[in-house]
Design brief:
Number of helices: 6
Number of strands: 9
Largest sheet: 5 strands, mixed, barrel
Structural class: alpha/beta
Distance between the termini: 28 Å
Strand order of the largest sheet: 5-8-7-6-9
Order of helices and strands: HEEEEHEEHEHEHEH
Shape: globular
Oligomer: single chain
Strand content: 25-35%
Radius of gyration: 18 Å
Length: about 270
């Protein structure tokens, strides 16, 4: 794994002269952010040694380097999910490469089912913490000290200062922002009413099928993390609705402008 990380990082370094310190995983709700990146340099995943290729409809696969306002950033358009059949090492491999390239801060977005009764479809939830219910842990197996400690500390998986800054940005722009705990599950089924109830009982506010593995690996490598979820469906007792992938994408598209504005302002606001 170490050889593959070094090989991939060396390839990307050979293509990109001015390597950023900030990376964004453009999950659901952040696709529009690509249009705000100036002076783009694009590398398709299939050209990158050792990179998996995304198989999900609506997820294109490329690394984009450029300027977002006054910040130089690296954006990952298209992520890898455990439910697609990838191993946890493959799902989190890009984050390992980010660390090897010198990335210090990782921003990530996703779509999620709301299980907090105060949430509405289209809400943007700032992730304050997570509950990991994936059946496989991304750090299982031999630990390499050059990647991080054997037992990483997770008391602040999501950066408190970036969370506070996000709420300031939302207030300045009159955008409703909620916050909560993200429950990460394997998928690919949407949840049953009993599962939604269970996730809420154990302390979750939203549930989804991504993000947690990448965040664990980012924190293992001592990267600062900020995460947001677009609430694309509701699993609240008495309002569990049938949901489809198309409906999720439609709800995410509605939230895109607000999500893009918050992320762009936040990235330009924080001190690296």
């Amino acid at each position: 794994m170490l050889d593959k990380i070094k090989q991939t990082a060396a390839y990307i370094n050979s293509k990109v002269a001015d390597m950023p310190k900030t990376a964004i995983i453009l999950g659901t709700g952040l696709g529009e952010l690509v249009n705000h990146i100036e002076n783009q340099y694009v590398i398709p995943y299939e050209e990158i040694p050792n990179f998996p290729v995304s198989t999900v409809e609506g997820h294109s696969g490329k690394l984009i380097f450029g300027n977002l306002g006054n910040k130089r950033i690296m954006a990952m358009q298209g992520r890898f999910h455990f439910y697609e059949g990838y191993s946890m090492q493959q799902v989190t491999f890009p984050v390992r490469v980010m660390k090897a390239l010198g990335i210090k801060t990782m921003f990530v977005s996703n779509s999620a089912g709301g299980i907090n009764p105060n949430f509405k479809i289209g809400d943007i939830m700032v992730i304050t913490d997570h509950i990991n219910l994936f059946p496989e842990h991304p750090l299982r197996g031999k630990n390499y000290n050059e990647l991080g400690p054997r037992f990483p500390e997770m008391s602040e998986a999501y950066s408190h200062r970036l969370i506070n800054d996000a709420f300031k940005v939302a207030e300045e722009n009159n955008i409703r922002l909620v916050k909560g705990v993200y429950v990460g599950t394997q998928g690919p089924t949407f949840e049953t009413p009993a599962e939604y109830k269970y996730f809420h009982i154990i302390g979750g506010d939203a549930v989804g099928m991504s993000t947690v593995p990448e965040v664990i690996v980012a924190r293992h490598g001592d990267m600062e993390v900020f995460g947001v979820s677009v609430i694309t469906d509701l699993g609240i007792e008495g309002i569990v609705e049938k949901v489809s992938h198309e409906e999720v994408q439609k709800a995410a598209a509605m939230a895109q402008p607000k999500m893009t504005l918050i992320m762009k302002e936040l990235i330009n606001k924080f001190e690296e």
